[in-house]
């Protein structure tokens, strides 16, 4: 069963489709001519179909809505851009079977940062294997869920140098920390899951943040992902 965040994402896309006019769809198809084939464009007769094709091509993802935001801005639908921003402000997590809603301020400067994986896509090596790109090129969301759990085991316990200090280092406010505290057994995992959606959330940056707060033990959990490298 899909999580509540995926469901809200789907609802958001559907609501956008409902609001787009035929004229809007015509303009969107024109703007997507460099991303879709002529045949695909001919088959698209609804906004839903357009979004479906863009999702298949990974142009639109729950964790990357930059293109969609740009398209809506280009056709002058700033009202729908605001709807999209509202979705991005609210992300839901499951905690003990209950949905915990976290409200975030959208930081456009962060959203416009290209993924490190995209920046290194033209480099050498097999980019299907994240570790081949090195820690500076691998996004946190690409690593195994086991690593999230190991970091949670180390950082969830109440202490001075725990996940709360890391949250501050990563730029989160007291309001965010208060919400993460609602799930004390999964606070670190929730923090990392949210931070991993940012365009600059690399393993390298998390490693450095952990070192900076004095949690070298936790940083080592990331370092072992790259045994061939002396340092991260």
Identify low-pLDDT runs.
Answer: 1-6, 103-133
Q: Quick one: CATH class of the largest domain?
A: Mainly Alpha
Q: What quaternary form is this?
A: single chain
SS strand fraction: 5-15%
Apparent shape: elongated
CATH architecture of the largest domain: Orthogonal Bundle
CATH H-level superfamily of the largest domain:
Death Domain, Fas
Q: How much is the radius of gyration in Å?
A: 20 Å
Structural class: mainly alpha
The total beta strand count reads 2
Describe this structure in words.
By secondary structure, this protein is mainly alpha-helical. The model is unreliable at 1-6 and 103-133 (pLDDT under 50). Helices cover 53% and strands 5% of the residues. Helix 9 packs across helix 12 (187-195), helix 9 (145-155) packs antiparallel against helix 14 (216-223) and helix 13 packs antiparallel against helix 14. It has 14 helices and two strands. It has helices at residues 4-19, 22-31, 38-43, 47-56, 66-74, 78-89, 108-111, 116-119, 145-155, 163-169, 174-180, 187-195, 203-212, 216-223, and strands spanning 90-95, 98-103.
């Amino acid at each position: 069963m899909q999580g509540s965040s995926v469901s809200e994402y789907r609802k958001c896309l559907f609501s956008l489709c409902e609001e787009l006019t035929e004229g809007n769809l015509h303009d969107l198809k024109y703007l997507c001519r460099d991303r879709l084939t002529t045949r695909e464009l001919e088959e698209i007769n609804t906004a839903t179909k357009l979004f479906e094709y863009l999702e298949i091509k990974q142009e639109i993802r729950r964790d990357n809505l930059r293109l969609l935001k740009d398209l809506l801005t280009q056709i002058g639908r700033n009202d729908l851009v605001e709807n999209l921003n509202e979705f991005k402000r609210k992300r839901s997590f499951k905690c003990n079977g209950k949905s915990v809603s976290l409200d975030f301020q959208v930081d456009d400067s962060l959203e416009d940062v290209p993924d490190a994986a995209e920046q290194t896509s033209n480099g050498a090596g097999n980019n299907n294997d994240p570790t081949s790109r090195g820690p500076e090129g691998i996004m946190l969301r690409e690593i195994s869920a086991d690593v999230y759990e190991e970091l949670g085991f180390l950082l969830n316990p109440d202490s001075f140098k725990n996940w709360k200090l890391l949250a501050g280092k990563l730029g989160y406010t007291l309001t965010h920390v208060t919400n993460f505290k609602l799930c004390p057994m999964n606070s670190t995992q929730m923090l990392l899951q949210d931070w991993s959606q940012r365009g600059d959330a690399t393993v390298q940056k998390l490693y450095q943040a952990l070192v900076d707060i004095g949690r070298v033990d936790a940083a080592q959990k990331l370092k072992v992902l790259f045994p061939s490298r002396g340092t991260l």
